[in-house]
Amino acid sequence: MRLLIIVLLISVIGALIGCGGGGSAPVPAARTPVTQTPAAEPEQSAFSWSEADPESAGMNSAQLELAFDAAFADGNFTQAALVVKNKRIVYEKYRGILDRERQSISASTSLSDASVADLYGNRDRDSLVSSWSTAKSFTSIVIGIAIGQDYIQSLDESAANYIDEWANDARAAISIRQLLDMRSGLVPVCFDPASKHLSECTETDESGGDLVFADDQMTACIQRSLAPQTGNPAWYLNSRVAYQRGAWLYSNCDTMILGEIIFRATGQSLQTYADIHLFAKLGMTAYWWRDNTENGQESGNFLAYCCLDATARDFARFGQMILDGGVWEGEQIVPSAYIDALINTTQDSVVGAPYSSNFSYGLKFWTITPAEQDDGNLFPAAFALLSTIGFDGQYIVIDFENDLIVVRNSLYNQSVNQGSALKMMVDVLDISQSNFVSTLPNGIGTRLPSAFNLQKFLYQINRSIGAP
Question: Has this prediction a pTM greater than 0.85?
């Protein structure tokens, strides 16, 4: 039955907003990366979360219960959510799929109720969730660590110092910061079902590149050309405002390139480098998916733009480290200057026309757009809350003012039907060879609505602070 999930995915993969990809290519002869040496097993932090009742952290448990009851209502597809206040977990909840959700999935797919229940039942704090584009924010932090260790000079360094293919043309002007901010000026690429390869998009694309069908998710990202200086290319989202090269354009390839920069700069794959210098430091276990090639970084290229599996509690560690200025257990994991730059993006990286002007995107982090609440209030304030965002509702929200972390993830099942490796492969001719990240409600290819509302959830949590 797990194989049927992939069949459903095929016809609607373009709807996977914020999750696409690039491909894999051998490192070109023009540049030899730092020699990768076998890494010593990193020493894992012994950290474990402390728990506290909400009242001890100045929060109202009854109000939090209302917030979580709403977030976990049948129809929201919520697997996990937790609140960390003052470095302690004050509220968390987990569940598997509920009746109405199960029925809606089975009614819109070929899966039976029993199969859906088997795939998405019985979730707890030790169950994996997946990141989708929340992984982009992890890639950003790994870049920051590499800058702190002098593998990369600075945010404003030319990416062509590592991506040699760009060194002798106009792409040499693209900085690492521009890749991090989705302002590279490079064309988006999409999967072509006829050729089964990636090429420049020929029509409007909102997903950042519907690239997950491609085995090779690096080559086309590297080979992209610069977009026209101005005009309205077919792939441009809004004809009311003329495109200008370097304007914000959501592109998964930009992040995929950053994973390759990590590899060429350090001589270690994104997974290996992150294991040693981030995950082990935080005491978290995380599994990054790769593309389906034998070449590249490590029997394939790690998907820097998406698809990092961990527990919700481990995702909260990442948020807490950022909240604490890049420090974990007394050690400066990420340079404080990088965290400062990240915080400054809330004002420095406002997206603007033709998009809403009340959110920002910088260094692979978002701010949460204000939304009107049931009582008429707008929440949150514009640019107040920093967050990761992933397809199907994957969030790590950082509230610096209230010393608060909120994590929310949707229901997830690792669909690994071919071997045990987390290698993305979707073979339309032989689905027994397919592996994919199967989140609900839409990561399996459905077009089902989720009733979960992030701003409402955050507003209810915020109202619990200081409430009698």
Answer: yes
